[in-house]
Specification:
It is a single chain. This protein has 217 residues and is of the alpha+beta class. Helix content is 11%, strand content 26%. It has a domain of 131 residues. The longest helix is centred in the N-terminal third of the chain and has 15 residues. The N terminus is likely disordered.
Length: 217
Amino acid sequence: MALVALAVAAVAGGCAGRTDAGASPGPVTGSADSGFGMSPDTPAPSATRTTPTPAKRTVTTAKASPAPPTKTPQAVPDWADVVEPCPVAGQRVEIQRVLQADVTGDGLVDTMVARTCEASTSYWASTIEVFDGTADPRRPERIGAPLLQERVKEDEPVVTDVSVNAGIIGIKAYGTSPKGTKACPDLTLFYRYEYSGRGFRLIWRDWGTSERCDKLK
């Protein structure tokens, strides 16, 4: 019995010396920058700071836009030298109106010039000449015969206004009836002319009476 008791004691003493019946625990490690698990004599590595490279600024230099080309102004003729001369030697041409508009339908601007002549008494009747927009402005070319030319003897018109509407030339003038005199024009006249391919034709005429005689002042 004594031998059995000693054997049991020996077995019990061997079991008391083990802390775990399984595999021994693995080594304990620390993080690379904490110093944990390293020799006390080995300094902990310091964290590496990365300085960001500043982004390059792209500076865009705005280029100045080129100046628009300078347009050379078209030559403007002296219309008094271009229109038909006055019939009396030494009589001066007087330009009354200059209007620009397309009256031939070609998309180019034509020029209408109303002119009269210097008069020593009363007045001189007007005519209107139309110059083609396709011609060199330094060498104007008249289209057809002067407007109002066919009405000079009967109406003796003096132009007061010229307009264009849808290619139709409208003219307002004052004039003299067979009962009136140039000293006191007694008519207000209205005309319309239309381009006919080679020149202009009168398509409408109207008139009204006028009692006023201050038009020539």
